[in-house]
Amino acid sequence: MSRQYLFQKKKCYFTQRLFDRGLNTAACILFALKESGEDFLRGLPSSYPEFKFWKDMFGVSNYPKPCFKENIIQINLKRLIKDGLVAKEQKSKKFSLTIKGKELVDYAENRYQILEKPWDGKFRIVIFDIPEVFKSWRGNIRQELLLLQFQQLQRSVYIGKYPVPESFCRELDEWNLRKYVFIFTIDKIDREDNILERFT
Fold first, then answer.
1. pLDDT tens-place string over residues 130-144
2. Which structural domain range is residue 164 located in?
3. Phi and psi (nearest 5°) for 127?
4. Sheet-wide strand order for 151-154
5. Which CATH number do you get for residue 86?
């Protein structure tokens, strides 16, 4: 399997885990290192316990910063460096996100921001017919759609309430899969009540 495929899978898994379980130490480090991380944290709703904790950790709420054991942070930093997501400057001893690390954080932010916007009343339908030679990418497309809360209508037909990210369309181009994927935006749909039940 290509590195590109594996990294795409990692981005999707990282984001899904973040949405499902909230914070872990590695995610905290990555977002703390992102230059605009504080602005993003301020925008998170404190009503979600995991996001409240996140905001508290970086001191962007009215609560004091919680303490973290240094050894846990060090272990996670070493792993993030090994994974190529974080770099350490030898002279200054400062840590920073690599291009790959920034891409991972941007991916999670982008998906979160899409799902936070109010529904515009339109449905999105994605139909794909991926050749067998690209079958591993088929799973990545499904993961991406499920992450965006799309529901399966038929085997390779998914319906969702949120727009498909532009970055996802660019990735389809990079993977040479765009010609196998069709995305529709629909104002009206038959049996809308039945469709909406899938999202509850």
1. 998 888 888 889 999
2. 123-197
3. -120, 130
4. 151-154, 157-160, 123-128, 181-186
5. 1.10.10
